[in-house]
Amino acid sequence: MPKQVDHEQRRRHIAEAVLRITSRDGLEAVSLRDVAREAGVSMGSVQHYFKTKDDMLVFALERVVDSARERIRARLEPLLPPTSIRGMFRAIAVAGLPMDAESVEEARVIIAFDSRSHVNPRLAEINQRIYTEALASLTEQFQGIQEMGGIPADRDAALEAGTFLAVADGLRAAVVLGSMSKEDAARIAEYHVDSVFGPPEAE
Question: What H or E segment, with its residue span, contains residue 85?
Fold first, then answer.
C-alpha cells in the first residue's frame, strides 16, 4: 500500500523550519530555497504545501502564536485555581515574559513578524486579530473583577487591559533586544500588577 502522508504534519514541519531561520537569521533570510534546505525537503515539496511565500509566513506566524499560548497555559496550570486575583494576574504577566530558551526564541520570532507586518497586509491582519481578541478577553476579565470589587469602580477596564498588554509587549521586546534583564522585566511586571491591584500586603 502507498505510504500515508500526514499533510498537516508536513506543513507544521516546514513552518518549524521557517521559525528556526527567522529566530537565527531574521525574517528577511526566509526564502523558499532556504526553508526547503532547513526542512530537509525539496523546493517542490514546499511549494506543494504553500502556494506562495505569504501563505507559508502566515501559517508559521499562527503556529508560533499557538505555541506561545500553549506554553503560557502550561506555566499557569499549576497555579490554578489562583489564591488571589492579584496573584493570578502577576502569574499571567510573568508567564508571558521570555524567561527561557524556548520563550526567548518565540518572542524573537514574534517581534520579527511584528516588524514585517507593516509592509505585509496579511500578517498585519493576523496581528490585529490576535491583539483584538486578547484585548477583548482581558477587558472582560477586568470588568468582572471590577464588578466583584477587585479594582475601584472609577477605573476604566478597557484602559487597564490595554495598558496591561502594552506593558507585557514592551517588556518582552526589551528582554529579547537585550536592553533589560529577565529579572528586571519580572520586577517591572510585578510592580505594574501592584499598581492595579495593590501590593501583596493589601490582598
Answer: helix 85-95
Q: Give the residue among 111, 109, 115 at the shortest CA–CA distance from 168.
A: 111
Task: Please tell me what DSSP assigns to residue 42.
Answer: -
Place of cell 515574559: 97
**pLDDT tens column, 130-177:** 999 999 999 999 999 899 888 889 999 999 999 999 999 999 999 999
Give me 40's grid cell.
Answer: 530537509
Number of H helices, E strands in the chain: 9, 0
The predicted model scores a pTM of 0.83
- DSSP state at residue 114: H
Torsion sign (Cα): 69, 186, 131, 155: positive
Helix axes 85-95, 53-76, angle to 10 degrees: 140
Tell me the per-residue pLDDT of 96-143, one tens digit each, with 9 for 90 and over.
Answer: 899 999 899 999 999 999 999 999 999 999 999 999 999 999 999 999
Q: Which residues contact 172 (CB under 8 A, 6 or more apart)?
A: 96, 97, 98, 107, 110, 111, 185
Nearest to 95 by CA among 124, 70, 64: 70
